[in-house]
Amino acid sequence: MQSVWTLLSWGPEGWLDDIAYGVFITVSLAAATLPVGLVIGFLVALAKQSDEPSLRLAGNIYTTIFRGLPELLTLFIIFYGAQIGIQQVMRLYDPTAAVEVNAFVSGMIALGVVFSSYASEVFLSAFRAIPKGQYEGGYSVGLSGWQTMRLVVLPQLIRIALPGLANLWLILLKDTALVSAIGLTDILRQAGVAARVTKHAFLFFGVAALIYLLLAIISSFGINAIERAVSRQQVQR
Amino acid sequence: MSVAAIDRPPALPRGWPRQRILGYALVCLWTAFLAGIAAYLILAWNGELFAKYAPGYVSGLGITLLLVAISIVLGAILSVPIAYARMSKNRVLSGLAYAYVYFFRGTPLLAQTFLVYYGVGSFRPQLEMVGLWGFFREAFNCAIFAFSLNTAAYQAEILRGAIQSVPRGQWEGAASLGLHKLQTMWKVILPQALIVALRPYGNEIILMIKGSAIVAIITVYDLMGITKLTYSRTFDFQSYVWAAIIYLVIVEILRHAVEWIERRITIHLHR
């Protein structure tokens, strides 16, 4: 009977090194998804707040679809769908081609579209919180549309949207657990392997849950630091 | 310069500004995409396959809805004492409730489900002693257990937020009329709090329906589980497309129902 500390030690006996690798994968997946999701979310929010009805419609269809689908289903559809789609295209040139889609990239795309559809709502409500006078003021001092956006609206937008985006980051961190279902070796999958080998399921899944909790706590410290930094830039009135 | 010339609003953009071209292009793209899916489903239509697997989908949908309904109800019952503890002035009690809520909101639902489903095996002797082993051997019961605990944490926060959004004066007013605490809660505070809580509750149900898809990983044949099974047997990608359509329809129905109820119960607030 191995002791708990042996099981959780670093090296060939213990599983800590494997779980640490899982933490690396989870964190890098979340970190790689974040910029993609933020950019797409911002663009969709821009479309949804424009004066052009067709742009608004296109943005709303995007949010409706990717907010309505379960994250796991989105992941499977992108993982298997991309595999089948690319395979069909490849077969046109090489009938024997077998395609293996990268689980990390599929996970990134799936989590990215889900994140962006929620982020677009956060950005949209932030856009609505900015008075029209800010745009008009920008135009009246001779800034172009893009300059007004970059110099006047965006700095205020980020400050308003930050709490909502921080929340979405925590949700994203938790959603990365789903990629273990398509075979990516994240925290949960490594814990599952360890549990199967050692038969200490409660211990390893408990450790995995505590690691997620720790990541959330660390993130909230980071978020607090960012919020303080952003609010310091705010003009004192 | 005349006043009328100054007051005239800017002319609406006519013709084809860049935004409109982009918007039309995107809408065309979406139309093509959705039409493509419809065409794919029609082309891939296979009556034999449909007859074989459609009943499975219906029962899977039933399992999903049953799972969510039981978890939501159990979670709602469990959330009341948690919310009470969270609001209590007793430091230990509120600390414990806070830790509970923090744990269940800070870890993935999938990890919690695994913890219950695979982890109960570690406590088999103890569970057999109290006669609960039979309950936890079923994956469906494990899922209900994990989901109820999870949604209880979220619902406790919703309930607490809603109750605390009611101004203090309402408590004081009721107290000055001689209502005791329970009466105040039931007749004065809750009716006002539930208006605030309706939308978060609706979102929580939607999140549970979407989240319940993960039980497919622990071998419960809900809608997602049936879909995975169908795909692994037929290698026909349309099994996933059908599941996506069903999930989208349920979520949209729920979302609109919540909006409708909200419009109905806030009639007295609109002028």
TrEMBL record, chain A:
Pfam families: BPD_transp_1 (PF00528)
Annotated keywords: Cell inner membrane, Cell membrane, Membrane, Transmembrane, Transmembrane helix, Transport
Record-linked CDD domains: TM_PBP2
InterPro entries assigned: AA_ABC_transptr_permease_3TM, ABC_transp_permease_HisMQ, MetI-like, MetI-like_sf
Residues spanning the signal sequence: none
Membrane-protein topology: Multi-pass membrane protein
Similarity field: Belongs to the binding-protein-dependent transport system permease family. HisMQ subfamily.
Main localisation: membrane
Listed GO MF terms: transmembrane transporter activity
Protein name: ABC transporter permease
UniProt GO cellular component terms: ATP-binding cassette (ABC) transporter complex
Subcellular localization(s) per the UniProt record: Cell inner membrane; Cell membrane
Domain ABC transmembrane type-1: 23-223
Residues passing through the membrane, by range: 20-47, 68-86, 106-130, 151-172, 202-226
Annotated organism of origin: Mesorhizobium mediterraneum
